[in-house]
Amino acid sequence: MPQNSAGLVSKALAVYAKDLRLELRTHYAINAILMFGITTLAMVSFSLGQSGLQPQLLAALFWIIMFFSAMSGLAHVFVREEEANTALALKITADPDSIYVGKLLFNLTLMAAMTTIITPIFFIFTDAPTGNIALFLLVLLLGVVGLCSATTLVAAIIAKASVKGALFAVLSFPILMTLLLTLVNATDKVLQGRGIGQVSAEVQFLVAYAVIMITVSVLLFKFVWKE
Questions:
Q1: CA nearest neighbour of 150 among 91, 103, 191
Q2: I need a surface site. Which of 169, 191, 201, 210 has the fewest CB within 10 A?
Q3: Which H or E run contains 193?
């Protein structure tokens, strides 16, 4: 591995490890995400009933919960730097690319922890069909990567704002709207029992969305971070 690539990876992992240690100490972001996700899922499922829901409604419900759960915790990755006055030290010790990659890895870890808990509860509470679970997990993985790739840059933009929570959701939704619609359509087809051939267009879009958002975020992050 070239030296500059090795340096980028090591610094990104250092940023990731720092955030992970702080999160394990405070549990702020993961508690906010899990509390919102589990509470919302329980309330909605008990209100609508456990069985008889159409696949499209189940798909929309799942990704609405995923979206708002992400909005409740993913911004904290940069907000914490501003609140603790550590942003300047981070700028001095690491380059923007490694900071973005490290923060993205941390957000992916948060969302992975959330989906590991939320997804089984979703299937239990809603009685959603599990016959096509491998394809569902593929769509879920691509959806989580897409959510994190877009919202990590937005979190850096709003970190210095006075109304961070509301602004984070407002700025993220237009960027994520196409992604969420595609995820709902793909999940709807998966829950209906359709195969990979009938979901291939959505899967290709999700892969392209993640690649484009990560690439654009890496290119723009240095300008956002140095402001």
A1: 103
A2: 201
A3: none
Encode the chain in three state secondary structure: CCHHHHHHHHHHHHHHHHHHHHHHHHCHHHHHHHHHHHHHHHHHHHHHCCCCCCHHHHHHHHHHHHHHHHHHHCCHHHHHHHHCCCHHHHHHHCCHHHHHHHHHHHHHHHHHHHHHHHHHHHHHHHCCCCCCHHHHHHHHHHHHHHHHHHHHHHHHHHCCCCCHHHHHHHHHHHHHHHHHHHHHHHHHHHHCCCCHHHHHHHHHHHHHHHHHHHHHHHHHHHHHHCC
- pLDDT by residue (tens digit) across 14-23? 889 988 888 8
Tell me the average pLDDT of the chain: 83
Q: DSSP string spanning 89-150?
A: HHHHHS-HHHHHHHHHHHHHHHHHHHHHHHHHHHHHHH----TTHHHHHHHHHHHHHHHHHH
Nearest to 180 by CA among 153, 154, 202: 202
Query: For 111-168, how does the pLDDT look when each residue is reduced to its tens digit (9 = 90+)?
Result: 898 888 888 888 888 878 878 889 999 999 999 999 999 888 888 888 766 555 567 7
> 36: Cβ–Cβ under 8 A, 6 or more apart, which residues?
68, 69, 72, 73
Nearest CA-CA partner of 106 in 222, 28, 171: 28
- pLDDT surpasses 60 at 193: yes
